[in-house]
Each structure stands twice: as C-alpha cells, then as structure tokens.
Amino acid sequence: MLGKALVEDHRAPSLETSRKSNRKRTSGASLSGANLERVGDHNQRVILQAIRLGAPITRVALAKISGLTPPAVANITKRLLDDGLILEAGRVQGARGQPAMNLTINPDGCLSIGVNIDRDHITVVMLDLLGAVRARASQEIEFPLPADVARFCKTQIRKMLAAWKGDPPRLSGIGVALPDDLGRVDLPHRPGNYDVWSSADVGKLLADILPLPVFLENDAAAAALGELQFGHGLRKPSFFYVLVSSGLGGGMVVEGDYFRGAQGRSGEIGFLPVRSPKTKARSLQEVVSLSALYAHLEAGGITVDRPDQLTALTAKGQALVADWIALSAKLLVQPFVAISCLFNPEAIYIGGRLPTNLIDSLVAAVNDRLARVEDVPALARVERAATSADGPAVGAALLPFMAQLLPSRAALMKTGRA
C-alpha cells in the first residue's frame, strides 16, 4: 500500500547492534511460508517487473515468462491498469486473427524521491518506475549539517511538485542514501560539529517534509542496487560496485541479490590498508576518493572543491590528476584481484561523482594493470557504471519501489535475464 508512514533503515547497524545482532537467525536453510495474499502480491510484482523489462509486451508473453495462467495474468494486468501503473500501447502489428494488445509501464503512474547526503553535496531526484530522472536538484556544500539537508530538500521537493504538469504525481516514498559513519569518519577540513550526524534522526528529517514512507540505505549499497535495476546489472547480475565519492565505498551484488555481510558492512573497500612509497596514506580511501584528489591538487597549489572544476584544469592540474589516476590504479589492483578470486563477479563497476572522462581514464589504467596479472583463475573486467554520478540518489529513489512494487531476487532472476 502506498503512502503508509514508516522509516525503514537498511544501512549497517550501530556498533552496539553490530556486536550483537537483533536479527533472529536459524541454522541451515531459511524457510518462509506464504499465504494467498502474499502470493498474489508477489505475482503482481513479477508481472510488473516483466512489463518494466520487456515492454512492449503482450499478456501471452507475460504468461510464458511468469509461468502464470492466462486468466491470472489477465486479472493482474487489469489491476495494474486500474491502478494506473501500466498502459495499453497498441495492438501487435501483422499478426493473424485478433491482434494481441501490447502493455507498457506508465511513466507517470508512480514516482519516488531519492536523496543522497554526502560530505560535499546534497542531491535530490524524482524517479519514475522506468528509472528515468524526472526532476533533479543538487547543491555543492562542504559538510552539510542536518538543518542544511532539511532546508534544501524541503525547498527542492516542493519546487519539483509545483513544476509537475497535470495532476500531482503519485509518490511511493522517499529513499535516502548516505555513507555509514557519516559523522565519525575523519576527512580533510571536517568541522568539529559534524559528529552531530551520529545522533541525527535522518528518517524523521525527511518524513517531516512529506507524509511518506522513508527508507534509509548506505550510499554505495544504494548505487549498487540502482545499477542492478537500471544499469549493467540487468545483463550481469553478479558484480562489485565501487563508489568514488568524498570517501570510497563498495557494494557486492551476487546473482541479483545485494550481499550485506554479518554486520551489514560488506564492501568496505575504502578501509583496506595500503602501503606505497608514493603516499603516506594508510587506507585506500585516503588515495582513491574525491577528497583525496582535491588534497593532492591543493598540495600542488591548485584549489578545487567541485567535481565539475576537474574538467577545466590547467596543464599543471591535468598532470597532477594523471599522477593521481596512476597511483589510484596501482593501489586498486590488489583489491580487485582479491574481489575476483573470492567473489568471482562478472564485472567491477566504478561510479561516483568523478567526471566521466576521469572515470574512463581510471578504468583504462586499472584494466591495463590487471592485464599484466598472472596465475589468477579469473579476473573481472572493470567498467564505468551506467548510473555513475547520481548512482546513490537513483538507488535511493529505487528503495520505495523495491519495498512496494518490485519483486524479490528470485523473481528478478526469472524475469530480468535472457
């Protein structure tokens, strides 16, 4: 049901909770029954996902894909049409007899809000069920405080709704993506009062703007989920996502399912130790991150505090960036080899707010070094993520859809792969 007020936090638990998980565990396989209502909801999610991925598509094709009977598909598609989530898109041309009707997603049928909070910016997007960003606003701001986030989001969301043409959009909820330990990790120029984020109620912060469900997620995890649903993950559902932001994060997706780990802290690639005579850094994110790149440029006498400034550097600045890419690629090789050996993903995707040309240069430099690695059973190729710059915000906007409209991993595997 859309519009129910709640706050759902998918991020890593606090340190205290991490030590003793409040989730009940069972030995062996996890079993879960399903009543008729749950089965009906699941089937509707499967059909909606199949239409989203395969449109224009007929009811006959939906029955073949889903394994449901034609009458069941007819009933489900009628409900989806009545709810305004799908549209009839004309009959199949050239077919004998009564041509079948094609179905497609109604891009205005349901939307959601995605918010990405980080140490250097706030981004808000309005997303439709096809993954198209229908409205976007972003503010470059160093170490925004909760009051800054609330003020910006309130203003921009109201502007988005006011600018919408026609009836007010049907919103399924608000998703929020932000780094774990936002108020605790020390980065250059971090103000003393930034630890206020450690006790901030982020869910309430956003719920006070609109009476909608709020879903919280780690920024790298959100970006990985967005890549799974709207990017390369539709073709390669086992991958590792590397998010280059003010820090460095990662997300692991295994056969279409995001893997969180025992304490919800999987993918923390930024905390891996590094040793190199070319840097005093002791962790990977002290080199491979926007804040580290800015500090590298600052040490060379060039001040940069926004990603777009990286595309208009002098020759000296470009040389410094090239040095940073070379060192970053060198330090990423061993983590990527380990990921390939332990996890065996189909690909490693790099996304984040680095300009596209710099991501491409970093990807090329890493792949060049990986090509020289020998005696490894399998190495995943590194590619630029499809969602890239707004990945966390897009992934955040996906969270309400996942909770209310889209199917589970098993159904995704059935409807999302050839």
Give an overview of the whole structure.
A six-stranded mixed β-sheet has the order 1-9-8-5-6-7, with helices on both faces. A five-stranded mixed β-sheet has the order 12-11-10-13-14, sandwiched between helices. The protein has helices at 15-19, 36-54, 59-66, 70-82, 146-163, 202-207, 219-230, 290-299, 315-343, 356-370, 391-404, 409-416; strands spanning 7-9, 57-58, 86-91, 101-105, 111-117, 121-128, 133-140, 171-178, 214-218, 239-244, 248-254, 257-259, 347-352, 381-384. The chain folds into three domains: 7-12 and 109-226 and 393-416, Nucleotidyltransferase, domain 5; 39-105, Winged helix-like DNA-binding domain superfamily/Winged helix DNA-binding domain (Arc Repressor Mutant, subunit A, Orthogonal Bundle); 235-385, ATPase, nucleotide binding domain (Nucleotidyltransferase, domain 5), CATH 3.30.420. The protein is an alpha/beta fold and 418 residues long. Mean pLDDT is 89; it is low at 1-5, 13-34 and 410-418. It starts with 6 loop residues before the first strand and ends with a helix. This is ROK family protein. Residues 1-35 are annotated as: Disordered. Residues 1-19 have a biased composition (Basic and acidic residues). Belongs to the ROK (NagC/XylR) family.
User: What's the total helix number?
Assistant: 12
Per CATH, the superfamily of the largest domain is ATPase, nucleotide binding domain
Oligomer designation: single chain
In percent, how much strand structure appears in the residues?
15-25%
Q: Which overall shape is indicated by the principal axes computed on the Cα atoms?
A: globular
> By helix and strand content, what is the structural category?
alpha/beta
Largest sheet: 6 strands, mixed
CATH hierarchy: architecture of the largest domain: 2-Layer Sandwich
- What is the count of β-strands? 14
The rounded Rg comes to: 22 Å
Mean pLDDT: 89
CATH fold-level label of the largest domain: Nucleotidyltransferase, domain 5
What is the CATH C-level name of the largest domain?
A: Alpha Beta
> What's the order of the H and E elements?
EHHEHHEEEEEHEHEHEEEHHEHEHH
Q: Please state how the strands of the largest beta sheet are arranged side by side.
A: 1-9-8-5-6-7
Uncertain segments of ≥5 residues (pLDDT<50)?
Answer: 1-5, 13-34, 410-418
